[in-house]
Design a protein that fits this description.
This protein is of the alpha+beta class. Helices cover 40% and strands 24% of the residues. The chain contains eleven helices and twelve strands. Strands 3, 4, 5, 6, 7 and 8 form a six-stranded mixed sheet that branches. A four-stranded antiparallel sheet has the order 10-11-9-12. Strands 1-2 form a two-stranded antiparallel ribbon. Helix 1 packs across helix 3 (34-46), helix 2 packs across helix 3 and helix 6 packs across helix 7.
Length: 336
């Protein structure tokens, strides 16, 4: 059973969430009687916390507007949400002044967090990477995220219960390399111990995670971010597309990012300037092809379709439609 001091702090936490709280509501949340709530309010006032009494039918207690509370009481989920928001904001092109405020806010939160929570959050931030400037992210399960982050840092296997996109459930043992935020979702990438192959799993499809005994060696080669992007680019889909495009990597990546397509040199010359325009082989996989012709047109670069033939037909059909749009129908008057 919580001690009275603990209940007083819980009362303060309830009041700092904003609005007016009735005595009945506070009594129910604290598990005490109304007169005990009033006694706890008196203790807060003795500590110079400006609790106001609101009369009337919807009366109760609230904090004085504009008061800055000295204690910071955050649950694991709240601390995780705040710090991840600050980390995402730091990558979002903040001005110098905003970046400074971001860093000082992070430092203040870390300073007042309990040591065990601060340690686990530091572990998570070490294991976390972003593929690009983050937008709005799904809110992950704090316990799950922290457990996997611990496994990443300690290089320990982790058992997960996973549901794939076809609703098939399985239990897997994963050697987790890192946690990656990509296009609003959270992923963990690592080696599936049973298959002996690298895999990427969506965090929101993991029902449970628990650390197992043992350890594994840190992998060599690409980091977690590149592994996730490469996994998306080479995932199994209905169509395998191979193109040759004349241009620079930057020109192609502006329309076909690393999560969609892989790029390699096509018959490169030894003295070739890597930034110069030349032929590059582009490979990708797609469930549908109808989105590709407009993308290739927007490239405005010479390209050759090596496969599949269906894509050639779709590109020709798009070119015919665009050509027909430029012809003025004889039966219509020009528009004023």
């Amino acid at each position: 059973m919580p001690r009275p001091t603990g209940r007083v702090l819980t009362l303060l936490e309830l009041l700092q969430s904003g609005g007016t709280r009735t005595v009945a509501e506070l009594a129910d949340r604290l598990g005490v009687e109304g007169r005990t709530v009033r006694r706890y309010v008196g203790q807060l006032i003795d500590l110079d916390v400006p609790v106001e009494s609101v009369r009337g039918r919807y009366g109760g207690y609230r904090l004085a507007p504009g008061y800055r509370l000295p204690p910071l009481m955050l649950s694991d989920d709240e601390a995780l949400a705040v710090l991840l928001g600050l980390v995402a904001g730091r990558r979002a092109g903040l001005t110098t002044k905003e970046r400074t405020a971001n860093e000082t806010a992070s430092a203040k939160i870390r300073r007042v967090l309990p040591k065990h929570i601060a340690r686990r959050l530091d572990t998570l931030l070490e294991a976390l990477a972003f593929t690009d400037q983050p937008g709005e992210l799904d809110h992950p399960d704090a316990g799950l995220l922290l457990t996997i982050a611990d496994a990443v840092r300690q290089r320990r296997p982790v058992s997960i219960r996973y549901t794939d996109r076809d609703e098939r459930r399985s239990e897997r043992t994963l050697h987790a390399y890192g946690i990656v935020a990509h296009e609003g979702r959270w992923y963990v990438t690592g080696k599936d111990a049973q298959l002996g192959e690298d895999r990427t799993f969506r965090l929101d499809r993991i029902a449970d995670a628990r650390t197992l005994p043992g350890a594994f060696e840190a992998p060599v080669g690409p980091g977690p971010t590149q592994r996730v992007l490469s996994g998306f680019a080479t995932a199994e889909y209905r169509h395998v597309v191979t193109l040759r495009i004349h241009g620079t990597v930057e020109q192609i990546r502006a329309h076909l990012p690393a999560s969609v397509a892989s790029i390699e040199e096509h018959e490169p010359a030894a003295s070739q300037d890597p930034a110069a325009e030349h032929w590059l082989r582009v490979q990708l996989q797609a469930q549908r092809l109808d989105w590709l012709p407009p993308v290739l047109a927007s490239l405005d670069r010479p390209f050759v379709i090596e496969r599949p033939n269906e894509l050639r037909d779709l590109v020709i059909a798009l070119a015919d439609r665009l050509t027909s749009y430029t012809r003025k129908p004889d039966s219509q008057e020009p528009m004023s």
